[in-house]
Design a protein that fits this description.
Layout: H1 58-61, E1 75-79, H2 80-85, E2 91-92, H3 94-100, E3 109-113, E4 123-126, E5 128-129, H4 131-139, E6 143-146
Parallel strand pairs: 1-3, 2-4, 3-5, 4-6
Length: 150
């Protein structure tokens, strides 16, 4: 049980705040731990990151390179072997692949690649297919329907 006479202040609350610039007796007087003169010794001094004392900064000395295409389409890839191992009867499309965990949820477009073997006939509805994947799927009796990339 806690009583008023058993209460104690927490350990961190007993530490005194450092008082700088309060005379020579404190040991932190005169320049208040700021050194002598210069930009950092003045009040209100904040130096932005990347500032090099008026010299042309490195990020402006180096040339701009490259190009980021804002209209780029990124495809999630699935191999034929993964489709063969998947237990599913019906048309395999983007929703099925997301629910089975074969592609990430953020993927908008799907491409089938030809790694692995397939021994069953499957129906696939995707955005793109490699030539070897097409041969393997159609060779096993399956079919491919291409959905337009928007």
């Amino acid at each position: 049980m806690i009583t008023l006479d058993s209460l104690k202040p927490s350990v961190r609350s007993l530490k005194k705040k450092k008082r700088v610039g309060r005379g020579p007796g404190s040991g932190h007087g005169k320049t208040a731990c700021r050194g002598t003169k210069g930009q950092k010794s003045r009040s209100g001094a904040t130096i932005p990151p990347g500032f090099q004392g008026g010299q042309m900064p490195v990020y402006r000395q180096l040339p701009k390179r490259g190009f980021k295409n804002p209209f780029r389409k990124t495809f999630g890839v699935v191999n034929v072997g993964a489709l063969s191992a998947m237990e599913y009867d019906g048309v395999i499309d983007i929703e099925v692949l997301k629910s089975k965990g074969l592609i990430k949820k953020r993927e908008k477009y799907i491409k089938i690649l030809g790694e692995g073997d397939i021994d069953k006939a499957i129906k696939v509805k995707v955005h793109a297919v490699s030539q070897t994947a097409r041969e393997k799927i159609e060779g096993s009796g399956g079919s491919i329907e291409l959905v337009g990339v928007k």
